[in-house]
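Give me structure tokens for this 179-residue protein.
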Amino acid sequence: MSDHTTLRDELKQIDEQIKSLEERRRQIYKASLEAPEEEKVAIDCISEMISDSEVRSSGFPMTIAGIAWVDTPPRREVKPELVAVRPCDGEKTYAGIHVGDLPLGIHVILNRNTGVLTAMPAYHNPAIVVPELGKLVMGCGSWWKRIKTQEDLKQISDEDILNVWYVRAILDKVEKKEN
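Here you go.
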């Protein structure tokens, strides 16, 4: 630092250099999209994201120092219960047993200070055992209801499905779009 350069001036120069380097980084990732496979610097989806000037630099590529697994308990305790279930890809209603909630995916969080990636179960959804099918059906892949009375044993009909509020809302929106 010269006698006439202030700390603020020096910091401003460093910020300009960083900005210039980040722009060059975006250019390299953009060029990587067109490069032969052996010259690519990252997979295309990462290169697309980093080359976008609107995306703030996330420090890609990242180094992961460790991975931790956190086994979170289910959000709610469920006692097994009898349910009527109609898989979305079928037209028949079956007797099933709602055995609780299972995760559909994994949520991850990176602690940038420690480099530890923490993973945990996420997107819990009702899990229903359907003995007649010999498989597990997820709540998001079916129409289902608890069986409390003999009336609840009836088939889940197309009319029942079409009367669900969010199905009606989607169909109304599609109908409006077509008109």
